[in-house]
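Ticket opened by: R.M.
Priority: normal
Category: complex prediction / small molecule

The reporter submitted a protein together with zinc ion and asked that the result be attached to this ticket for the collaborator who will pick it up next week. Submitted input follows.
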Amino acid sequence: MAGTMKAVHFYGPGDVRLVEAPVPEPGPGEALVKIEAALTCGTDFKAYRRGHPVMLPQTPCPFGHEMAGVVTKAGQGAERLFPEGSRVVVGDSAPCEDCFFCRAGQSPLCDNLKILCGAYAQYLLVPAKVLKHKTAAIPDGLDFASAALAEPLACAVHAAQALEVSGGQTAAVVGSGPMALMLIQVLKAAGARVLVLGRSPENLARAQAAGAKETFSALLPDAVSAARQAAQGRGADAVFEAVGTPEAWQSAVALARKGGRVCLFGGCAPKTQVPVDAQRVHYEQLRLEGVFHHAPGHFHAAVELLAAGKISPELFISGRVPLDELPKFFRDNAERSIPKAAVIP
Ligand SMILES: [Zn+2]
Ligand SMILES: [Zn+2]
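Result attached by the on-call engineer:
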């Protein structure tokens, strides 16, 4: 398919531009996807403000990493996976299949991890490994924008699976932002009773709407002990930190029951050190775990949750932006933390 397309590229902090770019040609195993919906993401706004060495290593470059669309051209061999006309949601990475970590089944730690960007465009070339490992057919009844939630949702699925959350357990979430809301919905879908500790009253109301059983204002001095009380008086079986500050990491450790698990999900600023209560970790056998990104299994599980109606897309997607207006949208919202918008090419 020769010709050009509209795309929004990242040129540097504070500088994204609408450009004309060539429509890519799919090679063997690759597919050309016509984007029907892309979602803006908190990470994109963070990158807009200060750049992003992992996601956007060289500039200018394609931008946007949560996307769904239709296969318009399948490269040699790719039509067996997704024939032309397939509605697909595309993940933003794939195992390289080669490094120590991919072979060990820990592909989020892949030595060659690259984030596939280019959602903010009319067309996206999906590399062969992404097509093979992290692309899924969109089930009937699921619209493109909702399907594109599979990427961030996969991170929440990864966290819930890492701590082996199952029915009847009490899970606590520290934080009430968009990722916390996703965690709440994933934990609830796993059958857990979810308690939430957060600061903003509006966000705590959203946490309730997402399915939290009880919420606690982190601004009150006894919030942690109140939440521990609500968790059978002994603390939560599993705790998820989704803020990314030392205080929140410490609250998460304090919320866990003896023998409980703690997922440190929110990334802190570089070089942050967090003191933890060593007594608790040793004598009370806490299990502390970092969780980053997602493996193919998490991505496909996220698509299944969306297909099963376990996730409420309206909690996350607040509006629509035409591709042409995206540079202005980033300028206008650079300093605010906004919910997701669906970008329509
Ligand atoms: Zn994202
Ligand atoms: Zn690898």
